[in-house]
Amino acid sequence: MALEGGLRSGLQPYLDSLRQELRAPNATLLSVLLALLAVALTLLVWKLIQGRKSSRRTVLLVGLCDSGKTLLFVRLLTGTYRNTQTSITDSSAVYRVSNDKGSSVTLVDLPGHESLRLQFLEKFKATARAIVFVVDSVAFQREVKDVAEFLYQVLTDCTVLKNTLPLLIACNKQDITMAKSAKLIQQQLEKELNTLRVTRSAAPSTLDGSASSGTAQLGKKGKEFDFSQLPMKVELVECSARGSKAEEGSADIEDLEKWLARIA
Predict the structure, then answer these.
(1) CA–CA separation, 70 vs 72, rounded Å?
(2) Position 217 confidence tier, pLDDT thresholds 50, 70, 90
(3) Are 106 and 94 in contact (CB under 8 A)?
(4) Is residue 7's pLDDT more than 50?
(5) SS3 (DSSP) at 66
(6) How many CA atoms lie within 13 A of 42 on its CB side?
(7) Among candidates 168, 165, 176, 154, which has minimal Cα distance to 76?
(8) Which residues of 186-213 are buried (b: 16+ CB within 10 A; e: fewer)?
(9) Is 215 exposed, middle or buried (0-12, 13-18, 19+ CB in 10 A)?
(10) Which candidate, 223, 230, 234, places its Cα nearest to that of 185?
(11) pLDDT per residue over 88-117, tens digit each?
């Protein structure tokens, strides 16, 4: 009995240690399970984001009146020249891009009139995959404030920011001698947008906060604005929907077509 009791007392520490090991979770196994769970959640979130993005197949063509949006729309779809008129409603059509995937998007030409453009942007922005902002490079110097005003409204729209819609500024009518370059247009737009940001932030808001409803801060506070501060990628290209020979020749829209192929 004494021997049995001695053995039991001698083994007791080992028995207690074994019980603790059995009760305690295995640290290595727990780490592996947590890692697998993290990977699964990451894949699930990625799939949800990709699913939402893939469901947005619309590319919006926006800009002021007479910027050449509708002719760009026609050239992309048909490759031909056509006399156009100021649009008062939207036009849409499926456009098959030139890439290995054989992807397609729906191009939507939105009216550029001041009283209509925001109304139609509101209608289509939730389904947009990307935005092409068309600028008249010839009239740009006298229209810069109006162009910047509309671009500011697009860039501070909460839906546009939330979906981080890629935005291309298409500097159109480059076939005309007096056309401004994409580099100059970028510099002037960034300057005007910075001025707008300062004046808008200094303006008093309405009592119900409706003045800021649906809009967000443009760029980074305390810094001169430039497009690199935005969550979405903003690019500029030079193009000509008319082309150097108008209806007799082809349009110079190769860079625009390449951009559409990338974002499709």
Answers:
(1) 5
(2) confident
(3) yes
(4) no
(5) coil
(6) 6
(7) 168
(8) bebbbebbbebbeebeeeeeeeeeeeee
(9) middle
(10) 234
(11) 999 999 999 887 777 899 999 999 999 999
Tokens of 85: 């008129």
Residues 6+ apart with CB under 8 A from 111: 86, 87, 88, 89, 90, 117, 120
Structure tokens at 17: 């240690």
DSSP per-residue string spanning 164-184? T--EEEEEE-TTSTTPPPHHH
What token pair was written down for 197?
A: 């940001």
Report how far residue 197's alpha carbon sits from residue 223's, in angstroms, rounded to the nearest whole number. 11
Percentage of the residues of the chain whose pLDDT score is greater than 90: 60
Kindly report the pTM of this predicted structure. Answer: 0.76
Q: Which amino acid is at 159?
A: T
Letter for the amino acid at 95?
A: Y
Q: Which residues pair with 189 in a beta bridge?
A: none
Q: First vs last Cα of the chain: how many Å apart? A: 85
Q: What whole-number distance in Å separates Cα of residue 264 and Cα of residue 247?
A: 28
* Residue showing tokens 């247009």: 185
d(CA 74, CA 83): 10
Location of structure tokens 């399970």: 33
Q: β-pairing, 128-136 with 167-172? A: parallel
Joined together, the tokens standing for residue 184 give 């100059």
Q: Which tokens belong to 158?
A: 């909460």
